[in-house]
Write a structure and sequence with these properties.
Layout lengths: L1 H28 L31 E9 L4 E4 L2 E5 L2 E7 L1 E8 L6 E7 L4 E7 L23 E8 L5 E4 L3 E5 L4 E7 L7 E5 L6 E4 L9 E6 L9 E9 L4 E4 L3 E4 L2 E7 L3 E7 L6 E6 L5 E7 L8 E8 L4 E4 L2 E5 L2 E6 L2 E8 L6 E7 L4 E7 L8 E8 L4 E4 L2 E5 L6 E6 L2 E8 L6 E7 L4 E7 L12 E9 L4 E4 L2 E5 L2 E7 L1 E8 L6 E7 L4 E7 L15 H18 L1
Parallel strand pairs: 1-7, 8-14, 15-21, 22-28, 29-35, 36-42
Antiparallel strand pairs: 1-4, 2-3, 2-5, 5-6, 8-11, 9-10, 9-12, 12-13, 15-18, 16-17, 16-19, 19-20, 22-25, 23-24, 23-26, 26-27, 29-32, 30-31, 30-33, 33-34, 36-39, 37-38, 37-40, 40-41
Helix pairs in contact: 1-2
């Protein structure tokens, strides 16, 4: 009987120990779990990424495009000022809306338009000039006095009615009969530049040289180029699997399948498609005239592990683009890259663009050290900063990226000559400027965008511009996945929102962000590395368990 009891106890010890030993082995062999699209591997299990809902019903809204002939007219929508024509992709509630278009020298234009949910409507207003009596006398030509301590600057232009200003938009004159004159003091501080502008035309800026002497007149010449009447098209985006988040130029987003409408024909746009558990897909689409461009992405599941790229440049401060997407400024470590081949571009004003490929290995860091070559005398560069940051930048209608907050977006290897810069930002008027790029030199643009004048009804949405160090963190707003940093979130309802940033190997970053209608809320987050933790082994309780069972067996034997 005693031996039977002992044998029973030994069998019971073996049965209880086996699951514990198996659990310990399972913990040691559990494969790495990756969280997010561009995260680094971790040795701990992570929460399942938040998956973008595929059945989320969108708001009952549509989009409205308003154009006029001539362009540059002021637009009111339901009594609220919305800027000047052309205006594309205005989001409105489904139903009927009143539209007013006014311009000095033209009869007011009013109409109503019905917009269906999820559809695009357009208004094209042809303005009628106001009839004015034709002057019977020829305007008196500008005087050309002789002698004295005054001089004159005469600006010649191909467009009558254009306004001329000097330096900081100080007093100027209006072009009449192809010219206008400005009296200046010979001994005064010379003007450096003059600007000629008129709605519907690209702004012209040139140098004032030479400065007139006593009794002299200096002739300056400006040619204004009309802004072409835009035509529009759309981009249709699908993905496999569907339900991914599709971003257009980093500003607006929809769940796939989706269509981005009312886009200017002939313009290039960056389309980025991301989904938790899959690699981010990025491409460029050109909008056809009165047609649709199609983007279909077969998303590739994330590899079991990722690696990183360590970029160091001489000089530092180069913009780093990986697979066409801006990541950070050098020096910087770019985490969460899938194993395999990737492309890298480095941009810095005054230096040639650096383009190369590199290979990422799972769990490893790939170093990239580059000495940038000063640009040759045959090309130039443009550096663009904007207030606010996060503005979409177009060079000669080609999308170039988003301006960073507090820094410059560098455009390198630009052909010398005149180029057109266009900046667009939600709730701000478009900013356009003609820029002259000298051979071997750098042109600098510091643009301050003008907010759209609010109407009687306050703007109920704003945006959040998010940057993280390191980049590549998953962004969740009110626990809904929005994309990967750096990131700009638009059409966010005014009020308080909870922003969460997650990156493997780092602590979650949580911040309450207050959004004000018509304004941008910047977030610059520095992620803190997570302290390594060790899971307790189930085997630590095994000795105590065996001791209890053996003690029980001894007591049973004594009683026997």
């Amino acid at each position: 009987m005693r031996y039977s009891v002992i044998l029973f106890c030994l069998l019971l010890v073996s049965a209880l120990a086996a699951p514990a030993i198996a659990a310990e082995v399972g913990v040691m062999e559990t494969p790495t779990i990756i969280k997010g699209v561009t995260m680094e591997p971790t040795n701990e299990p992570t929460e399942k990424p938040v998956t973008a809902p595929t059945t989320q019903k969108g708001p009952e809204v549509g989009w409205l495009t308003i154009a006029s002939t001539p362009s540059g007219a002021h637009v009111t929508l339901d009594g609220n000022s919305r800027g000047v024509t052309p205006l594309a992709g205005i989001e409105v509630g489904a139903g009927s809306h009143s539209v007013g278009v006014t311009m000095s020298g033209y009869e007011p234009y009013e109409t109503s338009v019905s917009v269906s949910a999820g559809e695009q409507a357009a208004v094209d207003a042809t303005l009628t000039p106001v009839t004015t009596p034709v002057p019977t006398t020829k305007p008196t030509a500008a005087p050309q006095p002789i002698g004295g301590d005054k001089g004159w600057i005469t600006v010649h232009c191909n467009v009558n009615g254009a306004t001329v200003s000097f330096d900081d938009l100080s007093a100027g004159c209006t072009i009449t009969n192809g010219e206008c004159s400005r009296e200046v003091t010979v001994t005064g501080t010379p003007y450096k530049t003059f600007t000629v502008q008129k709605p519907g035309y690209y702004t012209f800026t040139g140098p004032v040289s030479p400065w007139p002497g006593k009794g002299e007149t200096v002739d300056l010449y400006a040619t204004l180029s009309p802004v072409p009447t835009p035509t529009y098209g759309s981009i249709r985006v699908t993905s496999s699997p569907s339900g991914a988040v599709a971003y257009l130029d980093g500003l607006t987003w929809q769940y796939t399948p989706c269509t981005f409408s009312a886009l200017s024909a002939g313009t290039n746009h960056q389309v980025q498609i991301s989904m938790p558990g899959y690699q981010t897909y990025t491409t460029t689409a050109t909008v056809p005239s009165d047609g649709t461009a199609y983007v279909n992405a077969n998303l590739v599941p994330n590899y079991p592990q990722s690696g990183s790229l360590n970029v160091v440049t001489t000089p530092k401060g180069a913009d780093i683009y990986v697979d066409g997407r801006f990541m950070a400024e050098s020096p910087s470590v770019i985490p969460g890259l899938a194993p395999g081949s990737h492309s890298v571009r480095l941009h810095k004003s005054g230096y040639d663009e650096y383009v190369s490929t590199f290979t990422i290995y799972a769990g490893q860091q790939t170093p990239l050290t580059v000495t940038l070559t000063p640009q040759s005398g045959s090309v130039g560069a443009i550096e663009v900063a904007s207030t606010p940051g996060g503005s979409s930048l177009y060079l000669d209608t080609h999308y170039m990226g988003l301006t960073p907050s507090g820094g410059y977006l560098d455009l390198t290897s630009i052909a010398p000559g005149s180029h057109t810069i266009l900046l667009r930002h939600t709730d701000y008027q478009d900013y356009s400027q003609s820029v002259y790029v000298p051979a071997g030199g750098v042109a600098t643009v510091n643009a301050k965008l003008t907010p759209i004048v609010p109407g009687p009804t306050p703007d109920a949405t704003g945006q959040i511009v998010i940057a993280s160090s390191p980049p590549g963190a998953e962004a969740l707003l009110d626990n809904v996945y929005k994309g990967v940093t750096p990131l700009t979130l638009t059409d966010i309802s005014a009020g308080s929102h909870v922003l969460t940033l997650r990156l493997t190997g780092y602590q979650d970053y949580v911040q309450t962000v207050t959004v004000t209608g018509g304004q941008s809320a910047p977030v610059a987050a520095t992620l803190v590395a997570a302290a390594p933790t060790q899971a307790k082994s189930p085997a630590t309780v095994l000795p105590a368990l065996c001791a209890i069972i053996i003690l029980g067996a001894v007591l049973v034997m004594r009683r026997g």
